[in-house]
Amino acid sequence: MLLYGTQEVNEKGHLTIGGVDSVDLVNTYGTPLIAYDIALFRERARAFKETFRAEGIQAQVAYASKAFSSIAIYEVAQQEGLSLDVVSGGELYTAVQAGFPRERIHFHGNNKSEAELEYAFAEKVGCIVVDNFSEIELIKRISAMRKQEMDVLIRVTPGVEAHTHNYITTGQEDSKFGFDLKNGQADEAFYRLHNVEYIRVLGMHCHIGSQIFETTAFRFAAEALMNKMIMWRDEYNFICRVLNLGGGFGIRYTEEDAPLAPAKYVEEMASVVLSMTRQHQYPMPEIWIEPGRSLVGDAGTTLYRLGSMKEVPEIRTYVAVDGGMSDNIRPALYGAEYTAVTANRMDEPQTTEVTIAGKCCESGDKLIEQALIARPQEDDIIATFCTGAYSYSMASNYNRLPRPAVVFVEDGMHQLVIRRETYEDITRLDIPLQAVKRGDTI
């Protein structure tokens, strides 16, 4: 049976996470419930950092918080000495509320508004990752108006095709992100930022995609950026102090997935940079990476209660849970695959094939089409593994369903970190129509 992190089966035949019985979690907090194995998050963070230390490389490991954003996860990231990748004013505000050190916040995004950029300046974030020419002009204007220095990285697309789903590839030439490395856009961006008062160009950034299992694409990307950095040195006498190689390291959602150990991705990218800096006598840059899914993805487990069941003879058996695409859109969005178990009967054979359906009014609301669980019974607890990344962060109130609660578990302890939404929460922003006379404008 495929278990993750601290997950075990106790003497009652129940799935435990972080030493806590999943049945107790459900009885305490209700369902749907996303439980995070914080020990696994810490283990992954330390593994990335230790790999850089072992190589003798100055580095920053920035948690790509779009995978899962909350005050509590930002607090854990700070405890582990991580930096933070935010992509919106909302994520930055959450980081501020968490008291995250501003100098370790990197502000990303392909369409940062002027208000968001001004907020980043006001909070004195560590750097802004510049994504397009209009943003360059905004940053120049804001920095000059405020007479405030700002460090920037230039995001480039290296033209690397990563082997992943089309919706989550970002490093190819046809991308909404960054400046193309091959058609001169990256050089033009550097030219517009270099030697501008108050702007300090740290170096370059790339991100080639997500859920990538092999290292070849990462090596090609590192080589492409190093070649450009060497060219800028030779032509402009400019040295990039930072090389940010992004994230996208894959995790194991199903038994068919075969990701590498997180450290392996770092070793492969670092080997390219080390080799090229020695060969071309280039000062070794500080390497930054941005793991998100690989830090938090398999640390998350969603717990549901099983409700209705429907058998379609000789076709399939549907079992419905009390969540679905409202708390995990990934299967409907791009066919993401998951593994599930019957958490309250782990000691029974998990061999009954069912389709686990959600409760949203969409035919496509199917979490797993060929799940193997114990023979289903009403009120069973169904645990879906590896839901820590892009589940809660992409959750919605479709069908006016409340977003689930989130709990952290570690060393036999559990703590609520995001409360379950109520119906009152869902309608809180609604404004009723006022009484009007016929003919008046509504």
Automatic annotation (TrEMBL):
It is an enzyme of class 4 (lyase). Its EC number is 4.1.1.20. It comes from the Bacteria. Pathway: Amino-acid biosynthesis; L-lysine biosynthesis via DAP pathway; L-lysine from DL-2,6-diaminopimelate: step 1/1. Homodimer. It comes from Sporosarcina pasteurii (Bacillus pasteurii). It catalyses: meso-2,6-diaminopimelate + H(+) = L-lysine + CO2. This is Diaminopimelate decarboxylase. The keyword Transmembrane helix does not apply. The modification N6-(pyridoxal phosphate)lysine is found at K66. Gene3D superfamilies: Alanine racemase (3.20.20.10), Lyase, Ornithine Decarboxylase, Chain A, domain 1 (2.40.37.10). Belongs to the Orn/Lys/Arg decarboxylase class-II family. LysA subfamily. GO terms for biological process: lysine biosynthetic process via diaminopimelate. Its cofactor is pyridoxal 5'-phosphate. Pyridoxal 5'-phosphate binds at G248, E290, P291, G292, R293, Y390. Keywords: Amino-acid biosynthesis, Decarboxylase, Lyase, Lysine biosynthesis, Pyridoxal phosphate. Residues 41-296 form the Orn/DAP/Arg decarboxylase 2 N-terminal domain. NCBIfam families: lysA. CDD domains: PLPDE_III_DapDC (cd06828). Specifically catalyzes the decarboxylation of meso-diaminopimelate (meso-DAP) to L-lysine. Substrate binds at R293, R330, Y334, E362, Y390. Transmembrane segments: none annotated. One of its GO terms (molecular function) is pyridoxal phosphate binding. The active site is at C361 (proton donor).
